[in-house]
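Why do we bother with a discrete structure alphabet at all? Because it lets us treat a fold like text: something you can write down, compare, and reason about line by line. To make this less abstract, here is a complete entry for HTH cro/C1-type domain-containing protein. Read it the way you would read a sentence in a foreign language you are learning: slowly, and without expecting to understand everything at once.
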Amino acid sequence: MEHQDFKTVVLNNITAKEKKVLDQNKKEVQKRISQKQVSSNDNEVVKVQADKKLGQLLSQARLAKGFKTQGDFIKELNQKTKLNISLQIYNKWENNKEVPTNEQIAKMEKVITVKLPRNKKIKIDN
């Protein structure tokens, strides 16, 4: 019976080495997103600077509009603008841990009807 193979077959199994590489790539992408740095064609680095009070303004505008919880606001935002953001992401925006893009800020303005400050691009010399 040497010709038979009794090993179990597992489909879509990721080895430990592949998982480590995927985790490293994921961390690098998240780091680039959080730093919001973009390289332009002229080898200049552009950093996006957000208003430090954006999170506080988002919270105040949400409460003033009558949304008691972040979840209620997110449901309304996703229905009206099709932005499809999660509660965790919005929570990070209000706590100034992450910065929404100008496009996302514009869509939130439509729901809360309050003008919010936009992000500015700043060139960094190497």
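What the structure line is telling us, in plain words: DSSP finds five helices and three strands in the chain. The first strand starts at residue 37 and ends at 39.
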